[in-house]
Write a structure and sequence with these properties.
Blueprint lengths: L7 H17 L14 E2 L2 E2 L17 H14 L14 E6 L5 E7 L1
Antiparallel strand pairs: 1-2, 3-4
Pfam families: SutA-RBD
Organism: Marinomonas communis
Protein name: Transcriptional regulator SutA RNAP-binding domain-containing protein
């Protein structure tokens, strides 16, 4: 049993009724300038931005990477050519414009 999915119209109607109920209960809606809700003391909140620490020096590991690549190339042995599969015809379904199967065709 699947859960019934709300349409956009139903969701809009539900939100409108919640707003009306809030206003009827002496609620007040305040208008705020666009983008003001993301500001703290008139500035953007930068405490969550990850670039606070200074850039660190990186340790070069070129010799380690070269050793790993060398080990990988040593492990790879030449693989024998794969055997060819016997070519058997495949069954292909032909569909009409509505996506319903019409017939089957065998292809090589």
């Amino acid at each position: 049993m699947t859960k019934p999915v709300k349409t956009k119209a139903q969701t809009r109607k539900e939100i409108e009724s919640q707003v009306e109920r809030f206003i009827r209960q002496q609620g007040e809606i305040k208008q705020v300038e666009m983008g003001a809700s993301g500001l703290q003391d008139g500035k953007y909140n930068t405490s969550h931005i990850g670039f606070i620490e200074p850039k660190k020096d990186r340790t070069p590991l070129n010799h380690v990477v070269a050793a790993i690549q060398q080990r990988k190339s040593d492990k790879k042995a030449p693989t024998p050519p794969a055997k060819e599969k016997s070519k058997q015809p495949k069954k292909k379904i032909i569909y009409d414009d509505f996506g319903d199967p019409i017939r089957y065709v065998w292809e090589d």
